[in-house]
């Protein structure tokens, strides 16, 4: 059996007669990816290329490289062990770099406290963008995440089986909002995406070949190119244009029942997996989900760092994050960014998405047990 790392296309949800659009999707400008929404958001908030942006060091390079390519200077701040940014460290970085914006990430679907950051930075004219790329369906205090800062960005393809779903919400009056509303490209095509996902579902059902095997991972990395020893030259990036959501995304977003069921299913999977893993001696980072939390993964503390390779070798789409995508400067400076390094090394992320069923959880826990016993 192959346990996929991402949810499968849900044809029943797509075919269902739909009603009103999910409240969390109101007031959004759509883009291909979250990184495009980030660039558009900075622009709309009056933070043009050339300015400095403070970002957590625990981040993937695919988010940072386009920022640099567009001409922004990036200043890293280490995260705290609770996945949040320390206000004093952020203020020091803002002061030091003359930063005009801060990116605050809600990691893996768990809401981070950003209110203190926003109240300290707003009077200084520094914008806060909430990165909700892992957290599209998460609610905190009854509200969708991403309402506290000046803007929020999303990457719905991490929560829903869609090829697109980058999105931007502006929470404050913004200089560039009118320009965003003015033009919109058409919806991206979905045929190729659907074909790939059907092929992936067939592989998962047959259980062969193992798309998560080490040899496959290594081949993928070779195709993407080896990581350079130093920060790569930024590749020029154009200002992104909003687009219509794909036909798949539009259908899912109009199906509030499907989206609600995702939250319920994921919470159920999370509780089962975390309980079973704890019984094997693996501590979950977040033992109990807060109401409204829809995690992207179940993060478990694996000091050996061996669990993820073991699970992948046995067909489970577990992951570390950002793994090989830690930005080069952060990767090269473990003393400066110890927590980001620690999280990157120790966290084993197990899939809990809506397509994970009971048999997948039983399989994952059996492998976890075997893997722990072998250590
Ligand atoms: C925390 C975070 N922010 C932003 C992004 C960018 O999202 P996308 O891949 O849709 O561009 C990612 C991508 O992995 C991410 O993990």
From TrEMBL:
Tagged with keyword Transferase: yes
Annotated GO MF terms: transaminase activity
Keywords: Aminotransferase, Pyridoxal phosphate, Transferase
Domain of life: Bacteria
Annotated InterPro entries: DegT/StrS_aminotransferase (IPR000653), PyrdxlP-dep_Trfase (IPR015424), PyrdxlP-dep_Trfase_major (IPR015421)
Regions that span the bilayer: none
PANTHER family attached to this UniProt entry: TRANSAMINASE, UDP-2-ACETAMIDO-2-DEOXY-3-OXO-D-GLUCURONATE AMINOTRANSFERASE
Family the UniProt entry places it in: Belongs to the DegT/DnrJ/EryC1 family.
Protein name: DegT/DnrJ/EryC1/StrS family aminotransferase
Species the sequence originates in: Massilia solisilvae
Upper classification of the organism: Bacteria, Pseudomonadati, Pseudomonadota, Betaproteobacteria, Burkholderiales
């Amino acid at each position: 059996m192959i346990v996929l790392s991402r949810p499968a296309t849900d044809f029943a949800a797509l075919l269902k007669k739909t009603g009103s659009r999910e409240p969390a999707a109101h007031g959004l400008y759509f883009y291909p990816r979250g990184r495009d929404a980030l660039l558009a958001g900075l622009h709309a908030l009056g933070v043009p290329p050339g300015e400095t942006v403070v970002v957590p060091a625990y981040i993937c390079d695919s988010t940072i490289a386009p920022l640099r390519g567009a001409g922004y200077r990036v200043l890293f701040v280490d995260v705290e062990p609770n996945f949040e940014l320390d206000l004093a460290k952020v203020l020091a970085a803002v002061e030091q770099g003359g930063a005009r914006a801060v990116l605050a990430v809600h990691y893996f679907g768990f809401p981070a406290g950003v209110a203190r950051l926003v109240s300290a930075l707003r009077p200084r004219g520094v914008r806060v963008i909430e990165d909700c790329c892992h957290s599209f369906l998460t609610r905190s205090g009854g509200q969708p995440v991403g309402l506290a800062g000046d803007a929020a960005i999303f990457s719905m393809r991490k929560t829903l089986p869609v090829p697109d779903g980058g999105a931007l919400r502006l929470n404050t009056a913004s200089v560039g909002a009118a320009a965003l509303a003015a033009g919109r490209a058409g919806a991206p095509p979905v045929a190729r995406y659907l074909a790939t996902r059907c092929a992936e579902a067939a592989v998962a059902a047959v259980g062969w070949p193992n798309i998560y095997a080490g040899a496959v991972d290594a081949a993928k990395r070779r195709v993407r190119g080896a990581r350079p020893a130093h920060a790569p030259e930024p590749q020029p990036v154009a200002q992104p244009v909003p687009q219509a959501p794909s036909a798949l995304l539009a259908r899912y977003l109009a199906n509030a029942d499907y989206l609600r069921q995702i939250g319920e299913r994921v919470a159920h999977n999370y509780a089962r997996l975390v309980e079973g893993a704890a019984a094997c001696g693996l501590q979950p980072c977040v033992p109990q989900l807060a109401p409204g939390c829809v995690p992207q993964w179940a993060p478990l503390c694996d000091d050996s760092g061996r669990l993820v390779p073991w699970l992948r070798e046995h067909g489970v789409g577990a992951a570390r994050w950002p793994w090989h995508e830690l930005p080069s400067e952060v990767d090269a400076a473990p003393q400066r960014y110890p927590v980001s390094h620690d999280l990157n090394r120790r966290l084993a992320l197990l899939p809990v998405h809506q397509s994970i069923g009971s048999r997948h959880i039983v399989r994952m826990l059996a492998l976890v047990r075997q893997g722990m016993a072998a250590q």
